[in-house]
Amino acid sequence: MTRVFKTLPNNFCPGPIQRRGFMKMGLGGFTSLTLPNVLRLRAENPSPTKPKKNAVILVWQPGGCSHIDTYDPKPLAPSEYRGPFGTISTAVPGMNFTELLPMQAKIADKFSVLRSMRHGSPGHPAGTMRMLSGDQDTRDKVKPRLPDWMSVTSYLRSKAGPRATPLPPHVAFNGPASYNGPAYLGDAYSPYYITGDPAKPNFSVSNIGLSDPNEVQHLGRRATLRKNLDTLERSLDQVGELSALDEFETQAMTLLTNQQTKEAFDLSREDDQTRDRYGRNTWGQQLLMARRLIEAGVDVLTTSLRGPLCGRVQNWDDHPVNHHIFDALRFRSHAYDQAVSALIEDIYERGLSERVLVVVTGEFGRTPKVSYQPSTGAGDASAPAGSKQPGRDHWARAFSNIWAGGGIQGGQFIGATDRLGEDSIERVCHEGDFLATIYQHLGIDLTTTIDDFNGRPTPIVDRGKPITELMA
Predict the structure, then answer these.
(1) Whole-number pLDDT of residue 256
(2) Count of other CB atoms within 10 angstroms of residue 223
(3) Domain range 47-208+262-470, its CATH number among 3.10.450, 3.40.720, 2.40.50, 1.10.10
């Protein structure tokens, strides 16, 4: 039976909550009751059955990765399509990658490559919304119309009652762009955002796991004072809302004072060998942090591979005006290959491969045919301004993503593109199939609907089915 969940009335929350994430409010947010009230939003009508506590790590390539230069090489295509990179064999007979991915090639039996994704939204905002929420609008909107799958997961799992861990359900570590979010679910279901470079010695996450006993004591006094002042309000409470608020105030205190929370974010607790294995750089340490947080109890971890490791414009948007695409791919390939292969190996070695699904993708691919334009500026992987250089533009008709863990069948290449890599032609998959596969792993009923701003039941997946070939 399909369950329909009602959205919260607009006047339920006493004030606006910023998208920075509810725990970023820290002590100030708690003492002004913002944090408990955000948590209170998650108390509505708890479900009698708890969904499976499977988890997902989404590794996002903002701007879109060239499938031809990575997972779907075309060595027999003309030079203006195939690019300069040689092809290497992998641990799976018949599955070849380009020379940029030697570490992933060695463990290809531990993940599957889907080579036949496609959709109809060639812009970054629209493409991101397609992949993360299923929105089929081809226009590039400023804000999402539909909630992304991460917010939907947090929303639906909140119905199962209090969490067993002090950690938040969804963490975004330098996460995907602002094109995604909770939409009509409300900011209470936004992720907890972490920014910064975890490879730096002074990296820290603010307002997590307070250890100063004076701060903890001060926080406790504020909470007690607030409870003493609301006696009259409690006498008028007819629906038991304030008893739920008490529970969530306790959770709020735990978020700020629990030592487990602080330890989960502390990369120094990992041995040097493990940190070296992931790579002592931003991406490597991001993915190591992702594994730590998921292992500690976070349900959904999204992390975006952007920044200086990408090249001059700090993303994968390898237009010729931005990057010399082949220099850019060489520039970022080692850090990318090392971090992703370490994460996949780690979830197997630590016994997480059934519970934790790792998905690596961007919003689309890049044009199979190489184009040339003058560079707009010099920098890493970009020639001086005015110099003509090669690039690939947006391409949503065919692209690849990889899937690991989650109990899936590894060592597969699913689907195919044509001889030039221009179109998906075999086992074509769309955004609905992508989302349905993730929801199925998370134990979420694919027929679920949630009421939008206008009270209309809106399906969480529209015209999509799980990619059965991925299932063991």
Answers:
(1) 61
(2) 19
(3) 3.40.720
Q: Per-residue pLDDT averaged across 280-308, rounded?
A: 96
Number of Cβ within 10 Å of residue 394's Cβ equals 18
Strands 170-173 and 192-194: parallel
Question: Residues 365, 395: contact at Cβ < 8 Å?
Answer: yes
Q: Which two tokens stand for residue 285?
A: 């340490």
- CA-CA distances (angstroms) from residue 58 to 357, 402, 421, 428, 439? 8, 10, 25, 21, 13
Torsion of CA 307, 311, 302, 356, to 10 degrees: -130
CA 82 and chain centroid, separation: 30
What gap in Å lies between CA 89 and CA 95, rounded to an integer? 7
Distance set, CA 133 to CA 141, 358, 448 (Å): 13, 18, 14
In tens, the pLDDT along 175-184 reads 887 789 999 9
Question: Residue 98 contacts by C-beta under 8 Å, 6 or more apart in sequence?
Answer: 69, 70, 73, 83, 85, 86, 87, 88
Residue 333's SS3 state is helix
| pTM for the whole structure | 0.83
- Parts of the chain belonging to CATH 3.40.720: 47-208+262-470
What is the rounded distance in angstroms from the CA atom of residue 341 to the CA atom of residue 103?
6
User: Residue 296 has which token pair?
Assistant: 């500690």
- pLDDT tens, position by position, 25-47: 343 444 343 444 444 444 444 44
Q: Which element (helix H / strand E) includes 365? A: strand 365-366
CB 86 within 8 A of CB 329: no
